[in-house]
Amino acid sequence: MKAMLMAAPGGPEVLQIAELPLPELPSPVHLLVRLKAAGVNPIDTKLRKDGTYFPDRLPTVLGCDGAGVVESIGNAVTRFKPGDEVYFFNGGIGGEPGNYAEYAVVHEDCAAAKPKNLSMIEAAALPLVLITAWEALHDRAQLKEGQTVLIHAAAGGVGHVAVQLAREMGIRVAATVSSAEKAAWVNKLGAEKVILYTQEDFVHAALDWTDGQGVDAVFDTVGGDTFCRSFAAAKLYGKIVTLLQSDCTASQIKLARLRSQSIHFELMLGPAYFGAHQARIAQTRILEAGKKLFEAGKLKIEVSKTFSLDQAAEAHRLIEEGHTAGKIVLTID
Fold first, then answer.
1. 92 & 149 share domain
2. Burial of residue 258 (number of CB atoms within 10 Å: 0-12, 13-18, 19+)
3. Are 215 and 158 in the same domain?
4. Which among 247, 265, 283 is the end of a domain?
5. How many domains does the chain have?
6. Is 103 among the catalytic positions?
7. For residue 139, what are the CA distances in angstroms to 242, 268, 282, 284?
8. Which of 179, 178, 182 is nearest to 191 (CA)?
């Protein structure tokens, strides 16, 4: 099979097309999936540049998100049959091969039936961002109907799904974006208050929106100074959920402490890294819940650009330029 192989950390050029053996089923409960598309995420570019979580297992195939058709199954598989269309988050962090390839093997517990109204391209764009947004809003922030949330980089892959999911939960949404075009789009997705952070201070805007109280929660997908300044935008006992590790000043941390705020880290690939199978099953349940929401027309996924499998390096370059709206996907023939 063809695959984009990463032999060493480095620039996008380290991704090279290679011919690999067709993967064998590692257990009776695994599926062999003929991939039709693979999502490309910022984590892919970071692992390519800095090295994977398992640097002793190079070369490897990146790509955590995949969608395709079940080609064959182990003799103990009960949830799927050949010909079924599935989508999943699996592999791609260095421990086991990812989805920048023509085929992948997936434990049946880690795959979900593809939403019927989504294309393979749309489905492949979905797993990481849906699970991340769901865990951040439901599990980390534990938001309830009628509460408020500030979502940073709301036009991004995770952000635009988080806006819609929050609205589906009955949460009032404020969102930061970088342009008027993105502001109009995010407003249509359900954001009540859209803040152009290039033109106005998001802290002041969030406080004005909440009559000086601050939001119940902030969902930070940016990190750095954006994360550190978010303490001032959140209320007493507010929650800050971040996807990144950032260093804040003593005065910023003091403000968070004064307001008894809680900081939560969200990294949805943790269960895969630690081999926590039950936690991975819980993430599959999120994909199954998402399937229902997408089929009901309550959520949408935006794919801004597609590349062929052998153009994976170009996809990485585009993500690293920043300011991409929606998701980027590799198509696999």
1. no
2. exposed
3. yes
4. 265
5. 2
6. no
7. 13, 11, 11, 15
8. 182
What is each CA distance from 62 to 7, 27, 33, 252, 331, in whole angstroms?
A: 11, 22, 16, 37, 15
238 shares a domain with 113: no
Q: How far apart are CA 34 and CA 86, in angstroms?
A: 10
CB 54 within 8 A of CB 93: yes
Per the omega criterion (within 30 degrees of 0), is the bond before 59 cis? yes
Residues 48 and 108 in one domain: yes
How many CB atoms are located within 10 Å of the residue 236 CB?
10
**Domain limit, last residue, from 232, 249, 265:** 265
Task: List the alpha helices (DSSP H) in the chain.
Answer: 42-50, 120-124, 127-134, 157-168, 180-189, 202-209, 224-229, 250-258, 270-274, 277-295, 312-321
Q: State the residue for tokens 């004064």.
A: 258
For residues 151 and 235, membership in a common domain is answered with yes
Could you tell me the CATH number of the domain that includes residue 106?
Answer: 3.90.180.10
User: How many CA atoms, within 13 angstroms, populate the side-chain half-sphere of residue 77?
Assistant: 26
User: What length does the chain have?
Assistant: 333
Note the pTM of the prediction, 2 decimals. 0.96
Instruction: Let me know the angle formed at the C-alpha of 237 by 282 and 270, rounded to the nearest 5 degrees.
Output: 25
Show the domain range for 142.
129-265
Q: Which of 53, 100, 197, 237 is catalytic?
A: 53
Radius of gyration of the chain (CA): 20
Same domain for 7 and 25, yes or no, is yes
Taking 70 as the pLDDT cut, the residues of the chain under it are none
Residue 84 sits in the same domain as residue 201: no
CB atoms within 10 A of CB 85: 18
CB 315 within 8 A of CB 328: yes
